[in-house]
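ok trying this again, last paste got cut off
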Amino acid sequence: MTRSKSGPPGNNSGGISGAIAGDLEPCGACGRSVAPRALFCHACGAAQPPRALDPFTRLGLERRFDIDLEQLSKQHAGFTRAMDPERFAARGPRQQANAKAQVDALREAYEVLRDPIRRARTLLSLLGGMPAVDDGAENGAENGDEEIADLAARLTRADDALELDRIGLDLGQRIEACIKYLAPAFRKAQTASGLDSPPAFDGAARILARLERLEALAADVRDRRAARTPPRP
């Protein structure tokens, strides 16, 4: 997160710039050049409308799966404070609307990156990888389909809360394992030679597909467990 001596009106201590290299665009207020990820114009302090950016770029983070979640929160909080619409109240409704749109875009980027599945999907797409094709085949230990089928069968037969809790625990452990293995899978793909070759991201794509199937079962467990929990008086 970079800082600049220029910021919104009334900020003498410097504002968060968020500027990155890229095609410059004219500020709607003064016409000066503004970087795509700039939150406000450093020439006149006008709040800029959010550009079409990926979540990593918007929050100033490296494109990688194993991001620092604490740093993610700090980036989001810092940028959001800088674009509090009330700071642009003196500049009129348009400036406040731009600031609010920036806050909304920052929140959406934050929600994507803090969720492992959405983060992995986004990263896979940005790096040119393709989602794994689920052909419904039973390939045993290679992609975990048999294991997932067994868990799904257990869930179908589950007739009490205790069994649902056991299944939920098993699913939770497997979900944590998938998340753990995604980081090295993405690192391996990103450092491999010939990243334009489709197999480069196959490992990460397969783990992501397994994670999605496991999470779908876990959501089913949560729904069924909630249905068995009596409402509080």
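PB: full thing came through this time. Strands lie at 3-4, 15-16, 25-26, 33-34.
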